[in-house]
Design goal:
72% helix; globular; Ferritin
């Protein structure tokens, strides 16, 4: 697949955005837009959740996830710009709140972020299945593997904190 990606990159030299738009299909453009939209949503959710987190480790984890997601957003925006795909509305630069709601616990925050990562794995796998462009598929695969690593790290953190609902043993 790397060879096809390199051949496509060489062929892209000197092509206009209009030329490049002919290389991808409507599903691929839609997936890129959906990936960005969902990433923008989770950025805003993490920024808001960070205000309510009490656990210092959780705040570090949230900052780490936010940095990782912002790196992915930059890559997705670069791909979208290359193909002339309009970018969705970006989230606010930050979110500060003066209220501290006691119902928003650290475990609740973790579970919202964790479920967002779980859902994003499905979004990536769907995008990969419907992408025919070798270079776009290679980029999505790289982002998907990063997402799997992020999921695995977050799962381990949640297990350490006791925030993952473990199913009962099969045999008792």
């Amino acid at each position: 697949m790397k060879i096809l990606e390199q051949i496509e990159k060489i062929a892209d030299l000197g092509q206009t955005t209009l030329d490049l738009q002919r290389e991808i299909n409507v599903f691929e453009a839609g997936h890129l837009w959906n990936l960005l939209t969902s990433r923008y949503d989770i950025i805003e959710m993490i920024q808001i959740s960070h205000n309510f987190a009490n656990d210092a480790e959780l705040k570090l984890v949230l900052n780490s996830i936010l940095k990782y997601i912002e790196q992915q957003v930059a890559q997705l925006e670069e791909i979208s710009d290359k193909y002339g795909i309009p970018l969705p509305k970006k989230p606010p630069a930050g979110s500060k709140t003066a209220n501290n709601l006691e119902v928003i616990t650290d475990e609740y925050i973790f579970k919202r972020v964790f479920s967002g990562i779980q859902i994003y794995l499905y979004i990536y796998s769907s995008a990969l299945v419907q992408t025919t462009s070798a270079k776009l598929r290679e980029k999505l695969l790289s982002l998907f593997l990063d997402e799997i690593n992020a999921f695995d790290n977050l799962l381990l953190y949640g297990q350490l904190k006791g925030w993952i609902n473990e199913p009962p043993a099969y045999r008792v």
